[in-house]
Protein backbone atom coordinates (compact mmCIF):
# COMPACT_ATOMS: atom_id res chain seq x y z
CA UNK A 1 0.00 0.00 0.00
CA UNK A 2 1.44 3.33 -1.10
CA UNK A 3 1.31 5.69 1.86
CA UNK A 4 1.77 8.80 -0.26
CA UNK A 5 0.12 9.34 -3.62
CA UNK A 6 1.47 12.03 -5.93
CA UNK A 7 -0.34 13.35 -8.97
CA UNK A 8 0.02 13.80 -11.78
CA UNK A 9 2.79 11.32 -12.42
CA UNK A 10 4.03 13.27 -15.46
CA UNK A 11 3.47 16.87 -16.54
CA UNK A 12 4.76 18.60 -19.66
CA UNK A 13 4.04 22.31 -20.07
CA UNK A 14 5.26 25.39 -21.90
CA UNK A 15 7.36 28.09 -20.29
CA UNK A 16 5.16 30.69 -18.62
CA UNK A 17 2.30 28.35 -17.71
CA UNK A 18 1.11 27.73 -14.17
CA UNK A 19 0.82 24.27 -12.64
CA UNK A 20 -0.14 22.47 -9.46
CA UNK A 21 1.03 19.07 -8.25
CA UNK A 22 -0.49 17.15 -5.38
CA UNK A 23 0.56 14.86 -2.56
CA UNK A 24 -2.14 12.90 -0.71
CA UNK A 25 -2.28 10.37 2.09
CA UNK A 26 -5.03 8.41 3.80
CA UNK A 27 -3.25 9.06 7.12
CA UNK A 28 -2.69 12.24 9.07
CA UNK A 29 0.94 13.23 9.30
CA UNK A 30 2.77 15.73 11.46
CA UNK A 31 4.85 17.36 8.75
CA UNK A 32 5.60 17.05 5.09
CA UNK A 33 8.64 17.88 3.02
CA UNK A 34 8.90 18.75 -0.67
CA UNK A 35 12.08 17.90 -2.58
CA UNK A 36 13.17 18.62 -6.15
CA UNK A 37 15.47 16.24 -7.98
CA UNK A 38 17.19 17.34 -11.18
CA UNK A 39 18.35 14.73 -13.70
CA UNK A 40 21.53 12.98 -12.56
CA UNK A 41 21.47 14.51 -9.09
CA UNK A 42 20.14 13.75 -5.63
CA UNK A 43 16.96 15.31 -4.23
CA UNK A 44 17.22 18.75 -2.64
CA UNK A 45 14.83 19.95 0.06
CA UNK A 46 12.59 22.84 -0.99
CA UNK A 47 10.39 23.29 2.07
CA UNK A 48 8.93 21.65 5.17
CA UNK A 49 5.30 22.34 6.12
CA UNK A 50 4.18 21.51 9.64
CA UNK A 51 0.91 23.32 10.43
CA UNK A 52 -2.51 22.44 8.98
CA UNK A 53 -3.53 25.15 6.49
CA UNK A 54 0.02 26.48 6.31
CA UNK A 55 1.12 28.24 3.14
CA UNK A 56 4.77 28.85 2.33
CA UNK A 57 6.19 30.71 -0.65
CA UNK A 58 9.58 30.24 -2.25
CA UNK A 59 9.85 32.72 -5.13
CA UNK A 60 7.42 31.37 -7.76
CA UNK A 61 6.64 28.22 -5.76
CA UNK A 62 3.72 28.13 -3.31
CA UNK A 63 3.35 25.18 -0.95
CA UNK A 64 0.17 24.43 0.96
CA UNK A 65 -0.53 21.95 3.74
CA UNK A 66 -4.15 20.81 3.91
CA UNK A 67 -6.27 21.73 6.91
CA UNK A 68 -6.74 18.04 7.74
CA UNK A 69 -2.96 17.42 7.49
CA UNK A 70 -3.49 14.62 4.96
CA UNK A 71 -2.59 16.43 1.76
CA UNK A 72 -0.31 19.07 0.31
CA UNK A 73 0.05 20.91 -2.96
CA UNK A 74 2.82 22.70 -4.80
CA UNK A 75 1.86 25.48 -7.20
CA UNK A 76 4.38 26.96 -9.64
CA UNK A 77 3.62 30.29 -11.25
CA UNK A 78 5.05 31.15 -14.66
CA UNK A 79 7.09 27.97 -14.94
CA UNK A 80 10.64 28.20 -16.29
CA UNK A 81 12.78 25.52 -17.97
CA UNK A 82 14.90 25.54 -14.83
CA UNK A 83 11.89 24.17 -12.91
CA UNK A 84 12.22 20.91 -14.83
CA UNK A 85 12.77 17.96 -12.52
CA UNK A 86 11.18 15.35 -10.31
CA UNK A 87 9.14 16.76 -7.42
CA UNK A 88 8.93 14.47 -4.42
CA UNK A 89 6.92 14.75 -1.25
CA UNK A 90 7.98 12.93 1.90
CA UNK A 91 6.68 12.39 5.41
CA UNK A 92 8.41 11.14 8.52
CA UNK A 93 7.73 7.60 9.60
CA UNK A 94 6.27 7.01 13.05
CA UNK A 95 6.92 3.96 15.16
CA UNK A 96 10.04 1.81 15.25
CA UNK A 97 12.14 3.77 12.78
CA UNK A 98 10.70 7.09 13.78
CA UNK A 99 12.08 10.01 11.85
CA UNK A 100 12.91 8.09 8.66
CA UNK A 101 11.32 9.51 5.55
CA UNK A 102 8.71 7.88 3.33
CA UNK A 103 8.72 9.28 -0.18
CA UNK A 104 5.99 9.49 -2.77
CA UNK A 105 6.84 8.32 -6.28
CA UNK A 106 7.06 11.88 -7.53
CA UNK A 107 5.77 14.12 -10.30
CA UNK A 108 8.10 14.44 -13.26
CA UNK A 109 7.82 17.98 -14.63
CA UNK A 110 9.12 19.10 -18.01
CA UNK A 111 8.99 22.79 -18.89
CA UNK A 112 9.63 23.48 -22.54
CA UNK A 113 11.03 26.83 -23.70
CA UNK B 1 32.85 22.55 0.06
CA UNK B 2 30.74 20.76 2.67
CA UNK B 3 28.53 17.95 1.48
CA UNK B 4 28.23 14.28 0.69
CA UNK B 5 30.40 12.39 -1.72
CA UNK B 6 29.64 8.99 -3.20
CA UNK B 7 31.90 6.63 -5.10
CA UNK B 8 31.92 5.25 -7.65
CA UNK B 9 29.73 7.44 -9.87
CA UNK B 10 28.71 4.39 -11.87
CA UNK B 11 29.62 0.73 -11.99
CA UNK B 12 28.82 -2.31 -14.08
CA UNK B 13 29.10 -5.48 -12.04
CA UNK B 14 28.82 -9.18 -12.81
CA UNK B 15 26.21 -11.08 -10.83
CA UNK B 16 27.66 -12.82 -7.81
CA UNK B 17 30.40 -10.26 -7.25
CA UNK B 18 30.84 -8.35 -4.03
CA UNK B 19 30.59 -4.55 -4.21
CA UNK B 20 30.92 -1.72 -1.71
CA UNK B 21 29.44 1.69 -2.41
CA UNK B 22 31.17 4.45 -0.50
CA UNK B 23 29.59 7.46 1.14
CA UNK B 24 31.35 10.22 3.08
CA UNK B 25 29.94 13.40 4.61
CA UNK B 26 31.84 16.29 6.14
CA UNK B 27 28.95 18.03 7.87
CA UNK B 28 29.34 16.11 11.14
CA UNK B 29 25.78 14.86 10.76
CA UNK B 30 24.67 12.16 13.17
CA UNK B 31 22.23 10.34 10.88
CA UNK B 32 22.97 8.73 7.53
CA UNK B 33 20.84 6.79 5.05
CA UNK B 34 21.03 4.64 1.96
CA UNK B 35 18.22 4.70 -0.61
CA UNK B 36 17.69 3.05 -3.94
CA UNK B 37 15.67 4.76 -6.67
CA UNK B 38 13.91 2.71 -9.30
CA UNK B 39 11.57 3.78 -12.10
CA UNK B 40 7.99 3.45 -10.95
CA UNK B 41 8.95 2.64 -7.37
CA UNK B 42 10.45 5.90 -6.19
CA UNK B 43 13.02 6.26 -3.42
CA UNK B 44 13.11 3.39 -0.95
CA UNK B 45 15.16 3.24 2.23
CA UNK B 46 17.64 0.36 2.43
CA UNK B 47 19.45 0.97 5.74
CA UNK B 48 19.97 3.87 8.08
CA UNK B 49 22.17 4.90 10.98
CA UNK B 50 20.99 7.37 13.61
CA UNK B 51 24.46 7.75 15.09
CA UNK B 52 27.94 6.29 14.73
CA UNK B 53 28.04 2.70 15.92
CA UNK B 54 24.35 1.96 15.27
CA UNK B 55 22.46 0.85 12.16
CA UNK B 56 18.91 -0.11 11.31
CA UNK B 57 16.97 -1.78 8.51
CA UNK B 58 14.79 0.21 6.14
CA UNK B 59 12.10 -0.94 3.71
CA UNK B 60 14.31 -3.06 1.41
CA UNK B 61 17.37 -4.30 3.38
CA UNK B 62 17.70 -7.82 1.95
CA UNK B 63 20.98 -8.40 0.11
CA UNK B 64 22.61 -5.30 1.58
CA UNK B 65 24.70 -4.59 4.66
CA UNK B 66 26.06 -1.40 6.19
CA UNK B 67 28.47 -0.33 8.88
CA UNK B 68 29.00 2.96 10.70
CA UNK B 69 32.43 2.88 12.30
CA UNK B 70 32.68 6.66 12.49
CA UNK B 71 30.55 9.77 11.95
CA UNK B 72 31.68 10.53 8.42
CA UNK B 73 31.51 7.22 6.55
CA UNK B 74 28.59 4.91 5.78
CA UNK B 75 29.51 2.22 3.25
CA UNK B 76 26.88 -0.03 1.66
CA UNK B 77 27.93 -3.56 0.71
CA UNK B 78 26.30 -5.98 -1.68
CA UNK B 79 27.71 -9.35 -0.65
CA UNK B 80 26.69 -11.17 -3.83
CA UNK B 81 25.10 -8.87 -6.40
CA UNK B 82 21.98 -9.90 -8.32
CA UNK B 83 20.41 -8.22 -11.38
CA UNK B 84 17.46 -6.95 -9.29
CA UNK B 85 19.94 -4.74 -7.46
CA UNK B 86 20.44 -2.71 -10.63
CA UNK B 87 19.42 0.78 -9.50
CA UNK B 88 20.58 4.26 -8.65
CA UNK B 89 21.79 4.41 -5.06
CA UNK B 90 21.68 7.60 -3.01
CA UNK B 91 23.36 8.26 0.28
CA UNK B 92 21.94 10.99 2.52
CA UNK B 93 22.70 12.53 5.89
CA UNK B 94 20.93 14.74 8.41
CA UNK B 95 21.90 16.50 11.62
CA UNK B 96 19.64 14.06 13.42
CA UNK B 97 16.84 11.79 12.27
CA UNK B 98 14.21 14.54 12.41
CA UNK B 99 16.04 17.14 10.33
CA UNK B 100 16.45 17.93 6.65
CA UNK B 101 18.22 15.24 4.69
CA UNK B 102 21.05 16.15 2.32
CA UNK B 103 21.61 13.78 -0.57
CA UNK B 104 24.73 12.78 -2.43
CA UNK B 105 24.95 12.70 -6.24
CA UNK B 106 24.18 8.98 -6.48
CA UNK B 107 25.84 5.82 -7.79
CA UNK B 108 24.37 4.16 -10.85
CA UNK B 109 24.86 0.41 -10.50
CA UNK B 110 24.18 -2.17 -13.20
CA UNK B 111 24.35 -5.86 -12.32
CA UNK B 112 24.55 -8.17 -15.31
Strand content of chain A: over 45%
Structural class by helix and strand composition of chain B: mainly beta
First-last Cα distance of chain A: 37 Å
Q: Give a quick account of the main beta sheet of chain B: strands, pairing sense, barrel closure.
A: 7 strands, mixed
Q: Which chain pair shows the most residues in contact?
A: A-B, 19 and 25 residues
Radius of gyration of chain A, whole Å: 14 Å
**Tally of alpha and pi helices of chain A:** 0
Gross geometry of chain B: globular
Mean pLDDT of chain A: 90
Mean pLDDT of chain B: 94
Q: Approximately how much helix is present in the residues of chain B? A: under 10%
The major beta sheet of chain A can be summarized as: 6 strands, mixed
Q: Give the overall shape of chain A, derived from the CA principal axes.
A: globular
String of helices and strands of chain B: EEEEEEEEEEE
Specify the helix fraction band of chain A: under 10%
Task: Flag low-confidence runs of chain A.
Answer: none
Strand and helix order of chain A:
EEEEEEEEEEE
Enumerate the spans of chain B where pLDDT stays under 50 for 5 or more consecutive residues.
none
Q: What are the main properties of this structure?
A:
heterodimer, A: 113 residues, mainly beta, 6-stranded mixed beta sheet, 5-stranded antiparallel beta sheet, 11 strands, globular, B: 112 residues, 7-stranded mixed beta sheet, 4-stranded antiparallel beta sheet
Q: What's the short story on this structure?
A:
With about 110 residues, chain A is mostly beta strands. Chain A is about 0% helix and about 55% strand.
Task: Describe the model.
The complex is a heterodimer of chains A (113) and B (112). Chain A is an all-beta fold. Chain A contains no helices and eleven strands. In chain A, the strands form two sheets. In chain A, strands 2, 4, 5, 9, 10 and 11 form a six-stranded mixed sheet that branches. In chain A, strands 1-3-8-7-6 form a five-stranded antiparallel sheet, with no helix packed on it. In chain A, a hairpin with a 2-residue loop joins strand 6 and strand 7. In chain B, 0% of the residues lie in helices and 48% in strands. Chain B contains no helices and eleven strands. In chain B, strands 2, 4, 5, 6, 9, 10 and 11 form a seven-stranded mixed sheet that branches. In chain B, strands 1-3-8-7 form a four-stranded antiparallel sheet, with no helix packed on it. In chain B, a hairpin with a 7-residue loop joins strand 9 and strand 10. Chains A and B meet through strand 5 of A and strand 5 and strand 10 of B.
Amino acid sequence: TQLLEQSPQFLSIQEGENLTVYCNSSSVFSSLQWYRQEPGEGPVLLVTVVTGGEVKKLKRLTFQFGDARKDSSLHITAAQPGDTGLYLCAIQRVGGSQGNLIFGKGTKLSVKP
Amino acid sequence: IAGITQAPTSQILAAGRRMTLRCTQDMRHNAMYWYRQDLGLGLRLIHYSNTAGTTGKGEVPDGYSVSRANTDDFPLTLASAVPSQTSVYFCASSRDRYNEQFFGPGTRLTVL
